[in-house]
Design brief:
single chain, alpha/beta, Spore Coat Polysaccharide Biosynthesis Protein SpsA, Chain A, 6-stranded mixed sheet, 3-stranded parallel sheet, 8 helices
Length: about 290
């Protein structure tokens, strides 16, 4: 399943990367949820349908007029008929062997595995990677989880991104993705995937396959230190809301803050180490803000 919002060029690249993907467990279809009222994904999908049909793969495009990634994912759940669903985002490209590796654990482990997650590599789209963007900040861009080089079950504290995962559809038969969380238009809210955290807390076993890789385009306008700080602030807000909604433990956020020093800080002058530390503070500020508002 690919949820797409106003990125036809990147969707085109994503579909190109899916042409050679195979699924040994049986036939599969590709479902694109066009989340743009202008139906920008439809012409791209129509151009690819014959290519996939020649390989025995059906491609469908469905319009979801309520904008927001959670609305799109929920529409996809309603439209999908297969017992397994794999997610890839429209700004990602599947690397060779991605689908086979992502769904193989379901055949190997049977009912002992509920969710499978893969690794995500950054793609800077030809733009130089900033020297301040260290590996320890790539997770902010949903890249490089780095839990292991070998496939294994994830520990409870190890997370993954919804943009590269597969799961049993029945897990979400009675619930969907929360539509008040996650990205809508240009906001930086997150945690529409908190439903996976709740499922895992309830016993859903998650397997990590680092060889099931996709590349994720890091958009040029996000290669900005202030964007990183805003993103972490909203991540804190989103996580607090999600923790309360699903009855999960709310971690204590302990920090000392001088507003005067924070306001006077020259963000542009921060190096990688200082930016990493400050992004952690912004997360705590977002979490604490939400805990006093919701």
């Amino acid at each position: 399943m690919v949820c797409s919002y106003r990125r036809p060029h990147l969707l085109d690249l994503c579909l190109d990367s899916l042409v050679q993907q195979t699924a040994a467990v049986g036939r599969h279809e590709i479902l694109i949820i066009d989340n743009s009222p202008q139906r920008e994904a439809h012409p791209i999908v129509e151009r690819w349908q014959a290519v996939f049909a020649a390989r025995g793969v059906a491609v469908r495009c469905v319009l979801e007029e309520s904008t927001g990634v959670a609305f799109a994912r929920n529409r996809g759940l309603a439209e999908a008929s297969a017992p397994l669903i794999a997610f890839i985002d429209d700004d990602e490209r599947a690397l060779p062997g991605w689908l086979e590796r992502l769904i193989a654990p379901f055949a190997v482990f049977g009912e002992r595995v509920d969710i499978v997650a893969g690794e995500v590599e950054p793609d800077f789209g030809g733009v130089a990677r900033p020297d301040w963007l260290g590996d320890d900040l790539l997770h902010i861009f949903s890249c490089r989880w780095g839990w292991d080089t070998q496939a294994r079950f994830l520990k409870p504290q190890e997370w993954f991104g919804e943009g590269n995962c597969a799961f049993r559809k029945r897990l979400l038969d009675t619930q969907g993705f929360p539509t008040d969380l996650g990205r809508t238009g240009g906001n930086l809210m997150a945690s529409e995937g908190a439903v996976f955290v709740a499922l895992r807390a309830g016993g859903a076993a998650t397997y990590f396959v680092p060889q099931a890789k996709v590349s994720h385009r890091i958009h040029q306008d996000r290669l900005d230190k202030r964007w990183v700080l805003r993103r972490m602030f909203y991540q804190g807000i989103s996580n607090c809301i999600a923790h309360r909604r699903y009855g999960m433990t709310e971690p204590h956020q302990d920090f000392n803050l001088s507003l005067g020093k924070l306001m006077a800080l020259d963000v542009d002058a921060l190096d990688a180490k200082a930016l990493h530390a400050l992004s952690g503070l912004y997360y705590k500020l977002g979490y604490t803000t939400a805990s006093n508002m919701y």
